[in-house]
Design goal:
The complex is a heterodimer of chains A (about 300) and B (about 375). Chain A has about 300 residues and is an alpha/beta fold. Chain A has 11 helices and 14 strands. In chain A, α3 links the parallel β5 and β6. The C terminus of chain A is likely disordered. Classes of the chains: A alpha/beta (about 300), B alpha+beta (about 375).
Chain lengths: ~300, ~375
């Protein structure tokens, strides 16, 4: 099993005719993702890698039965693409685009309320479920193996680092979700945790957090109160200069300590197994699985990994 | 992006926020002429810098004669101003802003900022004007009013009344206070600000007035505000960061001696943490992004090497979509072109890592290729200490 994406995913690529969209469409297709169409306004009737291109998401949905989309549209137009996907009734929208104005995201966040769409991102690497051969976004598929650990991360390459460490130890993944680093985004840690908690095939979860905002501490509280699966985490930014981005009134609004050290301490106190350094994320997850007595169950057969 | 007070003052005026009218000057002579044109018997000379805390640092002075205005302006314009936010080297003062001295009855703090958690905005206000809000939050947290604003609803009269009540704004000024909140909201949303701050908002004869004007703009939205982009003053920004932006690099200068070049912000921060964990000190944060070209990498080397404190360089790349062999070729070409005067440690992992390592090995350059994250960090720390 997996969360959010899987064999039932019928994916649209918004921005399929651009250089980035085209490249990643090929990568996703080669991995095994079922891509049913692309959308670029004004390019209806064209095809990319034999995938039909539509002018609007609503028409693409009508003609292909698509239920999800991934967005590789420049930041100027990406907010419009998200709204279009929501209005077309897509179940999952994954926005890779970096640099969407935050006020646009604030309005989108409110617009999503009461709608069935789940938004992942923006400014994220997307999702990957190795057991389902389904990749939506830009994660390198070759570093993941099928298994039972769910991964949630605010960062891109640091996610790859963590996943590669798990894979090197034979601990496979159910789904890896990059939720993105923007201050206002679609799904947060807890939204994804709720799905992992319910997923019978996910036995443990690893969280990758960062300094500032983000809700890692709330996520750890949620885990303690609601989830009977072991969790490990790493929080980056112990040496980051304070207040470079978020000074003054912003810090007063959040009303909490956003330093990495404070987060690390609180997460540890809430029962999450903490990786003290970024090269020990895999070790921390293994330790948490062993403590819960399910380490053996989480090991992926090497042969299984290759198929 | 930050702008100067005199620029923010002008925007406040456009949006109907009451300010003191002032004149900007680039020399003592101009400052005297400015004061003369304003009239009155006392003037405030204000250094125009982006760094906060300028009042305490001597960047805001009261003058009682035209001669004094000239002297103060000349003095400010001839020195870099060091504040607690500017770093020890300070920032240049190219302009001063001259306003009339006024009698202040009471000062308030008022700001509008992003409330990320609630996907909206929030007014932050206190009766402790002239004081940094961080200090008020620490010393008298109950004195701070917080009023969330939903973007679908905007600023409503009851919100203004609630903030005014908390601050103790006199009844006869509440109408004007209401207009100020509405104007701040309109400015924030129309110009894509990340913060609008008035500190202090003062009660003077004739009503309320913003005695200082501060606006930050969100970088991601600047593409739709060419008028705002024109207000940028790169002289106030860290020259290394400006240079880095030219190469599409995200760079933040720090005080250590190990230069870092990493792909991805999270991994870049994690690399800095790892360096410190092993007893070293990072000289910078540098994210080369997801699709670094040879030109980007050459630019990154140039910036790292321009920092004379740098004693070693650690390149940490996790190739995903970005392939390690491409990165390795870029590193070799850039290192040959720019010449690397310090030990260079490279750790490549992920897509085509072996091919990348071979390219580094065959280059004939003295590049230390590390097999693991940890060994790479250790080698860079050791090289910097030697």
């Amino acid at each position: 099993m997996s969360i959010l994406i899987g064999r039932d995913t019928r994916l649209l690529v918004q921005g399929i005719t651009g250089g980035v969209g085209r490249f990643h469409t090929e990568q996703m297709k080669n991995y095994g993702t079922n891509i049913v169409g692309g959308v670029t306004p004004g390019k209806e009737g064209e095809a990319v890698l034999d995938i039909p291109v539509f002018g609007t998401v609503s028409k693409a949905v009508r003609e292909t039965g698509a239920n999800a989309s991934v967005i590789y549209v420049p930041p100027k137009f990406a907010a419009d693409s998200i709204y279009e996907g929501i209005d077309a009734g897509l179940e999952v929208i994954v926005c890779i685009t970096e640099g969407i104005p935050v006020l646009d995201m604030a309005r989108i966040k409110r617009y999503l309320e009461g709608k069935k769409t789940r938004l992942v991102g923006p400014n994220c690497p997307g999702l990957l479920s190795p057991g389902q051969r389904c990749k939506v976004g830009i994660m390198p598929g070759n570093i993941l193996i099928p298994g039972h650990v769910g991964v949630i991360s605010r960062s891109g390459t640091l996610t790859y680092e963590a996943v590669a460490q798990l894979t090197a130890q034979g601990v496979g993944q159910s789904t890896a979700v990059g939720i993105g680093g923007d201050p206002i985004k679609g799904m947060g840690f807890i939204d994804v945790l709720e799905l992992f908690a319910k997923d019978p095939d996910t036995y443990g979860v690893v969280l990758i957090g960062e300094i500032g905002g983000g809700g890692e501490v709330e996520a750890a509280q949620w885990i303690r109160d609601n989830m009977n699966k072991p969790a490990a985490a790493f929080v980056a930014g112990r040496t980051a200069p304070p207040g470079k981005r978020m000074g003054h009134a912003g810090a007063i609004i959040s009303g909490r300590s956003d330093s990495a050290d404070a987060k690390i301490q609180k997460l540890g106190a809430l029962g999450v197994t903490m990786a003290q350094t970024p090269d020990k994320i895999g070790d921390a997850m293994v330790e948490a699985l062993k403590k819960a007595g399910i380490y053996e169950k989480c090991l992926t057969q090497k042969t299984g990994a290759m198929c | 992006m930050n702008i100067h007070e005199y620029q923010a003052n002008r925007l406040f005026q456009q949006y109907g926020i009451p300010v003191l009218s002032g004149v900007v000057a680039a020399s003592g002579e101009q400052a005297v002429a400015a004061a003369e044109s304003l009239g009155g018997g006392s003037w405030v000379v204000k250094a125009q810098v982006h760094a906060g805390g300028r009042g305490k640092a001597g960047g805001v002075k009261l003058a009682h004669s035209l001669a004094e205005v000239g002297e103060l302006a000349d003095k400010m314009l001839s020195h870099r101003l060091v504040t607690h936010q500017s770093g020890p080297e300070g920032v240049p003062v190219d302009k001063v802003f001259i306003v009339n001295g006024v009698e202040i009855k009471k000062e308030y703090y008022l700001a509008l900022a992003l409330d990320a958690q609630n996907a909206g905005l929030m007014f932050i206000a206190s009766s402790q004007g002239g004081t940094e809000i961080e200090k008020t939050a620490r010393d008298m947290p109950d004195a701070i009013a917080r009023q969330p604003v939903d973007l679908a609803v905007g600023v409503k009269p009851y919100m203004c009344a609630a903030v005014a009540e908390k601050l103790g704004i006199p009844r006869e000024l509440q109408k004007q206070f209401h207009r100020i909140l509405l104007s701040m909201y309109r400015l924030f949303t129309e110009k894509d600000c990340s913060m609008v701050e008035i500190n202090p908002l003062a009660e003077i004869s004739g009503g309320l007035a913003a005695l200082d004007s501060k606006i930050n703009f969100e970088d991601n939205a600047l593409f739709r505000h060419p008028d705002i982009l024109e207000l940028r003053d790169v002289g106030q920004e860290d020259s290394r960061e400006v240079e880095a932006a030219r190469y599409d690099l995200n760079y933040v200068g720090l005080d250590g001696n190990i230069g870092c070049m990493v792909n991805g912000a999270g991994l870049a921060m994690a690399t800095m943490d790892m360096i410190q964990h092993h007893g070293g000190a990072p000289a910078n944060f540098l994210d080369v992004g997801g699709s670094a070209s040879e030109e980007n990498i050459a630019g990154a080397f140039k910036i790292l090497l321009s920092d004379r404190h740098v004693k070693s360089i650690l390149v940490n790349i996790f190739g995903g979509i970005m392939k390690c062999d491409v990165i390795a070729s870029g590193i070799v070409a850039a290192a040959k072109k720019t010449g690397v005067r310090v030990p260079l440690v490279v750790r490549l992992e992920g897509t085509n890592a072996e091919m990348g390592k071979n390219i580094l090995g065959d280059s004939g350059l003295a590049i230390l290729s590390a097999d693991t994250f940890e060994s790479g960090v250790r080698a860079a720390v050791q090289a910097a200490g030697a």
